[in-house]
Amino acid sequence: MGGGTLEGFPPSPPLPGLVTLTTDFGLRDAYVAEMKGVMLGIAEAARRPLALVDVTHDVERHDITEGALALEAAAPFFPAGTVHLAVVDPGVGTARRGLALAAGGHVFVGPDNGLFTPFLEAGEWRAFELAEADYRLPVVSRTFHGRDVFAPAAAHVASGVDPARLGPPLSDPVRLPWPEVHAVAGAVAGAVVHVDRFGNLITSIHARTLAPVDRDLVIRVGGREVPLVGTYGDLSVGRPGALIGSSGRLEIAVREGSAATLLRARRGTAVVVSRTSARPTSARRTTTRGRR
After folding, report:
1. Which DSSP category does 79 fall into?
2. Contact at 8 Å (CB) between 175 and 168?
3. Domain range annotation of the chain
4. CB under 8 Å to 285, separation ≥6 — which residues?
5. Positive or negative, the Cα torsion across 41, 84, 74, 116?
6. 16-72, pLDDT tens digit by residue?
7. What is the second-level CATH architecture of the domain 17-170?
8. Is the peptide bond before 79 cis (omega within 30 degrees of 0)?
9. Nearest CA to 114 among 173, 191, 193?
10. How far is the C-alpha of 273 from the C-alpha of 218, rounded, in Å?
11. Are 122 and 101 a contacting pair, CB within 8 Å?
C-alpha cells in the first residue's frame, strides 16, 4: 500500500460541496443560471467539486415567509455541511445586511430579512455579516446581490471557507413576526401561514404542540369545524379535513380541491385546536352558523 489508498485502487475523489438554491426568480430569465455559473467558477478555482440542488425558484415574488417555509421543509433532509443559498430579497440594494447563518450543521446564506427565521428558533446558531470583499465579485450590482454577493459567499463556504471569515459576527439577525401559537381556554390557537399550490392551508401549529395527536382533537378554521384525518385519501372528494402534513405542521386540505377556496381562508386566518372534552361553547355556536 502507499499514499494512504488501497493497492490497485485510485484515491477517492474529495466529497463535493453541496449548495441548494431557493429563490423567487422563476426560470424564465437567466438569474438562476448566472448564480450557478458564479459558484461553479469559484469551486473550479478552488479545485473543489461542487454539487448544486434546486429547492424551488417558484416562491411567490417578494414573499419572504413562503421562502422561509420552503427552507424549513427542505433543509432537514440534506446532509450536514450543506450550504443553503436563498434569495427572496425585496430590499436588495438598501441598507439591509447580507447574512451567513450556521445552524444545525448547515450554513444559510442570503439577505438578512427574516428568511432564515425557522433556524434561529431551533438550537444554537452563529451569524456573520457578509462584509469581506474577498468573498464577493469584484463588481457588485445594486440590483443583483444574489449573483454578486450571496452566490460567491455560498460557493466559498462550500469550498471550505469558515463562515466566520465572511465578516463580523451578528447577534441580532432579523426574524419574521410569525403568528404566535398560544393556549386559550383549554385550546391551542394559531393561524394559517401559507397556502400551497394545491390550496392546502399550512398553519403555525406544529405536531409537537398537539402531542398526542388523536381523534379527540377538534379543529376550527375561521370558525368552521373540520375533522382530523390521517391522510388526504381519508377525506371524501370535495370535503375539508385537517392532518399533520409532511412538514410536521398542521394543515387543512380538501381532497381534489382547494381548502383556501372552500373555506375562504388565507394567510392569517385563525386556526384553533381543542380537545373534545374542552370544546368551547362559543365554538359550537360558530360551527352551527357555518353549516346553515
Report:
1. P
2. no
3. 17-170, 182-291
4. none
5. negative
6. 799 999 999 999 999 999 999 999 999 999 999 999 999 999 999 999 999 999 999
7. 3-Layer(aba) Sandwich (3.40)
8. no
9. 173
10. 6
11. no
How long, in residues, is the chain?
292
- The pLDDT, as a whole number, for residue 120 is 94
* DSSP-derived 3-state class of residue 125: strand
Q: Which helix (H) or strand (E) holds 39?
A: helix 31-45
Helices (H), 48-140: 64-74, 117-120
pTM for the whole structure = 0.84
For the record, the C-alpha cell of 52 comes out as 448544486
The angle, 0 to 180 degrees and rounded to 10, between the axes of the packed helices 31-45 and 151-158 is 40
Cα angle for residues 220, 223, 229 (degrees, 5° grid): 25
Query: Per the structure block, which three cell numbers stand in for 197?
Result: 399550490
Give the Cα separation of 149 and 15 in Å (integer): 25
Residues 6+ apart with CB under 8 A from 90: 62, 64, 113
Q: Could you tell me the fold of the domain covering 182-291?
A: Elongation Factor Tu (Ef-tu); domain 3 (2.40.30)
